Structures are given as C-alpha cells and as structure tokens.
Amino acid sequence: xxxxxxxxxxxxxxxxxxxxxxxxxxxxxxxxxxxxxxxxxxxxxxxxxxxxxxxxxxxxxxxxxxxxxxxxxxxxxxxxxxxxxxxxxxxxxxxxxxxxxxxxxxxxxxxxxxxxxxxxxxxxxxxxxxxxxxxxxxxxxxxxxxxxxxxxxxxxxxxxxxxxxxxxxxxxxxxxxxxxxxxxxxxxxxxxxxxxxxxxxxxxxxxxx
Amino acid sequence: xxxxxxxxxxxxxxxxxxxxxxxxxxxxxxxxxxxxxxxxxxxxxxxxxxxxxxxxxxxxxxxxxxxxxxxxxxxxxxxxxxxxxxxxxxxxxxxxxxxxxxxxxxxxxxxxxxxxxxxxxxxxxxxxxxxxxxxxxxxxxxxxxxxxxxxxxxxxxxxxxxxxxxxxxxxxxxxxxxxxxxxxxxxxxxxxxxxxxxxxxxxxxxxxxxxxxxxxxxxxxxxxxxxxxxxxxxxxxxxxxxxxxxxxxxxxxxxxxxxxxxxxxxxxxxxxxxxxxxxxxxxxxxxxxxxxxxxxxxxxxxxxxxxxxxxxxxxxxxxxxxxxxxxxxxxxxxxxxxxxxxxxxxxxxxxxxxxxxxxxxxxxxxxxxxxxxxxxxxxxxxxxxxxxxxxxxxxxxxxxxxxxxxxxxxxxxxxxxxxxxxxxxxxxxxxxxxxxxxxxxxxxxxxxxxxxxxxxxxxxxxxxxxxxxxxxxxxxxxxxxxxxxxxxxxxxxxxxxxxxxxxxxxxxxxxxxxxxxxxxxx
Lengths: 209, 522
What we know:
heterodimer; A: mainly alpha; 7 helices; B: alpha/beta; six-stranded antiparallel sheet; 12 helices; 17 strands; 25% helix
C-alpha cells in the first residue's frame, strides 16, 4: 500500500512526527531539496475533520513531479476527478494519480509524449486551461476522448492510484490488513443487526474453545 | 527433505504442487513411493502471506505471459490475464476460497442427462459418483471439510446474513455457511478460522486447507519427497518405445536440468498442463504428447461465472470474515424449464476496495462507478458459479508469436461463451439480484466474470482413446507412464467449485499408480 508523502512545507524543524504509523515519516529538508530538482509540485490542504486528518501529521500536503509541470499535474488531477468523482476523496489522493503518471512519464519518453499531448488537447478543448474549466465542461471533454490511448492510460492508472492507498481506504471505510488485529472473530464479523440472525443450523456459533 | 539423483529413473516426477500435484505427492510418499515435485513458483508461508490485495497478487499469481482470444469479455478487459491462478508452492490452494462440494450424480453423465447440445462437446465421465464416493470421503476427511465428518459449519459473517435473509424471503431452501475446507474449530494441528477476510491472499492463520502446509510437509516427513521450488518444466521426454523417461526443467538458478523418471504426472493447472504436452511434441508425437485424439488443450472450461453486488441503506462490511462461507444450492439442479442445461451455485464473495475498483466493472468510470465505491461499506456480494459447456473450439494452443523467458511459445486461451452459458448467467444474475432485493437492496450490480480460477477440461478423461486424453485414473491413453493429475482431467465441469474433486481424483490416482508400480505394469 502506498501513501502520498504528506509534508508541512512551513515547518522548519526537520522531520514530521510519526503519526499513527500509516503515513511514512518524511525528512523535510530532503523533500525540499528534491522539490528544487523537480519539474513541478502539487500542493494542497486536507479539510479539518475529514477521515484523512487522523492519517496526516499536518493538514498540508505536497507531491513532487519530476517530468511533468505543475500545470500538467493539475490537469491530470482534474481529469482523475472527472473520471472518478468522489466528493469525499481528497485532492491529495488525486495528486497520487498525477504523481504515478509522472513516474511513468519519467521512465518512458513515449508515455511522456502521450500524456503531454493528451493534456494539451484537454486544454485546447477547454479553451485554454482544462483544470480551471467547470466540472461539467471537464466531464464533457473527458467523455469526448473515451477509448483513446491517453484516456485509457489515465483511466487505467486511476484504478491503483486512487483506490489502493491508505487515504482511499479511510475514505471508503475499508480497514485493509486484518491479521495484526486478530481478524474479525471478535471484531464484528457478524455484528449486522438490521436483519434477523440466521438459525444455528445454517450458521453455527463461532468456536471459542 | 529427501534428495534424489537427477539420473534416478525410479522416481515419480510430479509437475506442480497444488491441489492435484501436492495431494498426489503426499499420497504416493505415504505408500513408500519416491517422488520429485517440480514447482515453478517460490515458497511462501503463512507468515509471508500479505493481507493486501495487490501485493499478495504479485506474490502469488501466475504472471508469466499469456494471450487470449474469443468473445469472452476477459479477452478485452484482461487480455494478458485469462486466469487468476498461482505460481507458488501449494499452487492455487494458497488462493482458493475453500468451498468443497461434491459433484452431483447427473453431472458425471451429462451426455446421458442433457442429450446433445449444439456447439457443445458433451461426454459422460468414465466414472460415476458412486465410484468416487469413498474417495470423496477420504478427501473431505483429509481437508477437514465443514458439515462432513462431524465438523461444524463456519459461523456466518455479515455478508452471509444478507444472503440468508434474502434467499429465505425468496423461498430458497438450502442456504447455509457451506462445506468449507476451513477449520471451524482446531483440527489436524491447524487452528480455527480467525475471520480475517483475506482467504484469497493466502490464509495467514492456516485454518484454510492448502497443500503448502498440509500435504507437502506430511510428504516431506516420510523422507520420500524431493520438492524443488522455482523449477519450471519445459519439456517431457520419451524413448523410442513411446514411454516418458523424464523431464527438462530450469532450476532456481536458471540452469537447465534433466530429471529422469519412471512415471511423470502433470498437474500444472488446465492452461500449463496442455501447454507442456504440446511443447513436448517430437518426431514420434508430432501433435504433442498423449494427443492422438487431438483433444489436448480442447474443451477448455472456466465455469459460468459472474457476481452480483448490492448496496443497502445500512452497513454490511462484507469484507469481514470468511470470504465464501455462504451458499444457496437450490439452483444447482438440472432443470431445463429455466432455459438452460445444468445448474449453478450462489456463494458469498467480497473484494477489498483495491480489487473492487479493478473488478466491479472493468473499464467502468464516471458517476455510477463512483457511487458504488462510495457505498463500499454498505455492499453485499455473491459469486455465481455454474456448469459451462465444453467446446472443442475453446482451447489452449501455443502462441508462437509470443515467447516466454525460456524461448517457449506462450499459451493462448481461446474462449467463446456458449449460448447455454449466457442463458445461465442471465438467470443467475436475475436470481442474485432478486435475493438482494428481497433483503432490501437499494441498488444491484451485475459484475462480469473475473479472470478464471476454475480452469478445467483441457486433457479430459473418457472411455475412448479417440475422443479423450486420459482414462478414469488420469492415465493417458497413449503413454501408460504419463498421468494427468489436475483439473485438466475433468470431462465436464459440473456446477461445483472443483478443488474437492481434484483432490479426490488425486487420492484415487495415487492408489492406482502404486498398484500398477507394484504389479510392474508401469
């Protein structure tokens, strides 16, 4: 499972605190050095009181791009949201999509060109800046390119980038690994109360020795 | 662990260590037969299994290149992944869900019961349920199947509660937590199920039967087994007399090896098994080994499958607990009034968020898709699994255009749904939706088949050497010391999850091999 590096750019005292273990610790000075080398950076904040607040050491997040520009990253984030519009899913998760696509672009010139050309076409269709267009317009533009290689690449990447990370788990209410917690044998595997319990011949009691 | 010499031609070589190969190895070792098990995958353990869908997939799944063709949706959505099966010690018994149902009497004799169906290559099995009953009993005892041998059923989870309520309101009669090779209480030195919810990712508690930590360690204890992980067999060799003499494989260091053998048993699952026979073609056997019938690779079956997911107003948390401990059996009968031959089972199933995103509606996007993911905790799910029609044209062939890392042609899996499969799937979808509607669903969704876990039939058994590959013991008609030891043997698929029958056939085959070895007929 991956998480977006969540950093507090304003903090001056080095490393973040560990949080509850689900967000890796970042050496901030190092992060800043990498930002200087990068081609772009995506930043934002997580709404106070959201499911993610507990995961993050700070409400601010940042993701570095190494090949694509900040504007290109922002366009991909918006395209991700047009494809998979989750009101509750934070921008930080859509930034993972941009970061993962940026990673692919960094390793393969053909992918970089596919993405750059695709983003340019999105911008053109939006009359200049896709990321700034209305959600309705963005959806209309994305629909118009359905099935094209650029569309397929971005949509396919969404499946793992958007849904296979701790922030998505927290948002959708999926706890992930159960082994460390002893499974659900004593943690509600049959706690549903809004339907009648099946009889014992259909569903015997759990064994507790 | 025993170590046998490469030149020792008294050993039985078993290719694959899953339900068929792993069971066969232990059964033979218990009888004092020396066995070399060649397993393509690496060794994992309960400790190394991962409660994370993608990471576990990469750890366990068979990801060597494969290609697909045909009108099945898999060829479009998962063109390089026709099957979700495993490349690891223990094979797909690491991944299976544990459902252990006997095939029904009529399912061994479908040609007799269903008659001729256009476009289907139906045949009766060369054995009956009665023949298999004593062997089924041994398999159930070995695997610790619930609701057999006095073993209580598993406790139902929330997903089962929803299934049960809906099924009963709809009038279904046979609904319970299934016959599962998952300990409901400690047995055979393994603990009881902890309701982890990660059955598909390798059972970390060991409650689920897998050859990895049952059959194989027991075989090892006899001193008769030499298990060689990361050993990929590329060819079976034979002599002038047409008997097999050994196998060529690449070991864990990538070095080519030749292991001699008295008998070779192939249990590589229904894609790799026929592929290996085809790759072993020679001047004497131009169409591949044991293929005088031309049936090697044909009649590929993958069960009629599909899933129904439903969303409710209230939380379900279907991911908690044993994935498949829940079944409705009423539709498993053969009743042509429904518009198709054969039947299907309805079994609880859930996916985590990562795999739900990948499999709910492959290629899907937009508001509807997002709505389902937003309702993840309120979802219940079931898998539909039924008999599909064997077709000669549904087959595994060698794709010479794509080579694996050893330079061998990869398998192509061609599959066209038969009209009977489609009619059954539509019926099953409708009934699954009705179950959930009866339980109060606010919305239901028909999820298309996942990459196949039930791969069957590509070296079918039969009474005639001209229309089948092996006999009722899995012994190939053409080569008496070459055996098929996995689900490839299935003449037809039945509606039931196949592992119990694969294990049953392996126990019976071991008995036959030992008898023939003692009688010196092989």
